[in-house]
Structure formats: structure tokens, C-alpha cells
Design goal:
- This protein is mainly β.
- The protein has a single domain, classed as Beta-galactosidase, Chain A, domain 5, CATH 2.70.98.
- Helices cover 2% and strands 49% of the residues.
- It is built from 1 helix and 24 strands.
- A hairpin with a 2-residue loop joins strand 3 and strand 4.
């Protein structure tokens, strides 16, 4: 079911399936990708409890094998609406028999959307309801509309301090490479050649990213509180009219290696009964 919230000239539409943001408008101008299946059928995915792919869609935990497809299961699940106000929504996803077959932990994932005069704030709270440590990754994967070709834009990382790129293969698994990321005045000029082979996964660039057009105008600013990586992606080799600027806390599996969940790169860990909150701010 789709829900709308509003605050003055700002409106947002969120689908309870996947708690997915479908629209974010200011003064009637749309910011979010419309999910055109010719390029990418989604708009802003929540990635949980893994990010990217794992080898053969398979991992092990305490001697047993489990299966998870790309980005986990949260984006395809129905979230329950818990709170609704004119400018606020809160959804929850909890474990059930189906999730427990794929991911052996009891959890609650809360997602709250709050609109203000010029921004949308999204709060993710992961709750471990198991009686043991819980291992997971969390990511946010929003797409932003582009009115011009990709080469007309750049992305600024104003807090970059030791920028690196983490190598991944085309199918979104780690290849073991880490290389320096070259920025010019904290900016990366965009070009469709950036997305010939894979998404671009960055670390050491802080928690903020700003999409800027060729005239220096800020199109959208993002802040990812609690996330360890910022990722750029569009449909490969497409020059698609959108760009995803993502926050990842966690990384995909290693290419060619079926891993134990406890040994996957950069997984977050919650003690039994604990919770952790992450934040995303989208300013337009």
C-alpha cells in the first residue's frame, strides 16, 4: 500500500512493500527515479541483511547452509505501518518462518520517514531479538532522476579524507582489490564509462555526498550517518537517466568463496537484545 506524507512544499510517497520511497517532490519537481523497467524497475531499495551478492547465493552459519539472493530479502517484504502523521511514517519488518529459513535470527527492522521544509530524514533501527549475536549488513539504495546526460554532473564528497575504491566484479561481489580514488577538489566527474563493469564502492570519503550539475548547482545532498561506504551505481553500460548514491554498512561476499556469515567483510554485529540506529538525510 502506498502512503503520502507532506510538509509545506515537500511531499513523499512510500510503499509498504519494502518500505520503499517512490517519490520525493519539492514544489512539484520530482527527485526520485520512477522505476522505469527499461533501466531499473525500483526507486530506493533497503538492503538487509546482506548487501550485494554472496557466492552461489549461499553462506554458512554454525555449520549449516543458508541462501540469500542479491541484497537480501527486505526490499521484497511487506512492512507493517506502525505510526502515521502528516509528515511522518514508521514501518516495521519482523522475522517470520520464511525469513528464519534464510536468516536464522529474530529481528525487527524499523524504518521511519520524516519530512521537513527542505529535507527527508530516514531512520533505520535494527533490533536483535535473538538470544545470540546477530550478524547483518544494512544499505540504502536510492535512485535520483537526471535531466541531462550523466557527463553533465559530478559528485562532491566534502568530507573525503583518504579516498579509496573497493573493487567488485560485475555481479556485485568483492574481487579483493583496493585502490586510491582520485578526486579533484573533493569532486568526481561522472561519465558513463564509470559504470561499464560494476558499481563504484568508496571508503574514506566521509558520510556526505552532493550531486552537482555542470553549472555548479546542487541537485541533491545526502548524509549517511552510521554507514561505512558510499556507492555510486546506474544500470551498467546504459547511460540511464538516473544515478544511485547509496550508503552501505557492510560489503558483498567474496567472488568464488562461500563464506561463513561471521567472517564476511564489514558485517555489523549486535549483541542479544541490542539495537542500533542509522540515519539518511536527503536535502533537495
Amino acid at each position: 500500500m502506498k502512503y503520502q506524507i507532506h510538509h509545506r512544499e515537500m511531499t513523499a510517497v512510500i510503499d509498504s512493500e519494502g518500505a520503499q520511497l517512490l517519490s520525493l517532490e519539492k514544489n512539484g519537481k520530482e527527485t526520485i527515479w520512477d522505476g522505469d523497467p527499461a533501466y531499473w524497475e525500483d526507486s530506493s531499495l533497503i538492503l538487509f541483511p546482506i548487501i550485494g551478492r554472496i557466492c552461489n547465493d549461499t553462506y554458512t552459519y554454525q555449520g549449516d547452509q543458508y541462501r540469500l539472493s542479491i541484497h537480501g530479502f527486505a526490499s521484497g517484504r511487506e512492512f507493517i505501518l506502525k505510526e502515521k502523521e502528516d509528515d511522518f511514517l514508521r514501518f516495521t519488518l519482523e522475522q517470520d518462518e520464511e525469513t528464519l529459513r534464510d536468516y536464522p535470527f529474530r529481528f525487527a527492522l524499523d524504518v521511519a520517514y520524516s519530512l521537513s521544509e527542505a529535507a527527508l530524514d530516514i531512520r533505520f533501527t535494527v533490533n536483535n531479538r535473538s538470544d545470540e549475536k546477530m550478524f547483518y549488513a544494512l544499505g540504502y539504495h536510492p535512485g535520483f532522476r537526471l535531466d541531462h546526460s550523466l557527463g553533465s554532473y559530478s559528485v562532491s564528497f566534502p568530507q573525503a579524507y583518504d579516498p579509496k575504491e573497493i573493487g567488485i566484479v560485475r555481479r556485485c561481489m568483492l574481487n579483493g582489490e583496493i585502490r586510491d580514488l582520485k578526486l579533484t577538489d573533493h569532486c568526481l566527474q561522472l561519465d558513463k564509462d564509470l559504470f561499464r563493469e560494476s558499481a563504484r564502492v568508496f571508503t574514506g570519503i566521509g558520510d556526505s555526498a552532493v550531486l552537482i550539475d555542470e553549472d555548479g548547482k546542487k541537485i541533491v545532498s545526502l548524509r549517511y550517518d552510521g554507514f561505512s561506504h558510499i556507492v555510486l551505481w546506474q544500470t551498467l553500460e546504459s547511460d540511464a537517466p538516473f544515478l544511485c548514491i547509496e550508503g552501505w554498512n557492510g560489503l558483498p561476499g567474496r567472488n568464488g568463496i562461500i563464506e561463513d556469515l561471521t567472517e564476511m567483510k564489514d558485517m555489523d554485529v549486535l549483541e542479544a537484545g541490542a539495537s542500533k540506529t542509522y540515519g539518511v538525510r536527503i536535502e533537495i
